[in-house]
Amino acid sequence: MSIKLKGSTDGSVTLTAPADTSPTGTDKTFTLPTADGTSGQVLTTNGSGALSFANEGKILQVLQAVKDDALSVSLATLTESSNILSQAITVAASSKVLVSCTLCLSSGTTLNGLSLNRDGTNIGIHESAGNRYRGTATWYKDSDSGIANQTVTVMFLDTPGSAGTYTYGVKLRHGSSATQTVYVNTYSDDQDISKRIKGISTLTLMEVAA
What we know:
Layout (H helix, E strand, L loop, with lengths): L1 E5 L5 E5 L25 E4 L5 E4 L4 E9 L3 E5 L9 E7 L4 E12 L3 E8 L2 E3 L13 E4 L9 E9 L5 E11 L5 E5 L16 E8 L2
Antiparallel strand pairs: 1-2, 3-4, 5-15, 6-14, 7-13, 8-12, 8-14, 8-15, 9-10, 9-11, 9-13
């Protein structure tokens, strides 16, 4: 069965019920939303026939912090740095935040780590790990000279849980038993020679509609 809706001046739209191959037939009921949605929203179902407008899976905004200069961070053992990159974002109650961070790093010690945080509280970190550092990612110096520069990338989908403005950041840490320096966008011996390559570091936030 079909329903044809004729335009006020010309043309028409036809709604056709799907063919049902079950022996006795099955009735389908869809309940339309009581109000129109906003621009860009899509019509979704709850799985039981109730339709509503939503921003399903849509990226609502993208913000980015960029560090394109060099930074040397001196850290005592078992001590996290302050945020070397941070970015604030204001989100809706139902939204998630996709946090993406790319860092160009070098270090004077072998074992190093980094952690993402929201308003100072670490997120996307390892579960309970005894005395070991609970971080988002680890990275290693791959040269005894300490001049090796590495690009480290992490991504984490965070759920703040309520509407508001949140500041996301990334902190560094090393595993040496003595004070060491971690370098961002540079080398421990920053020689001005053509074979050296220097990059940038970024922290990108994307609000994702739930």
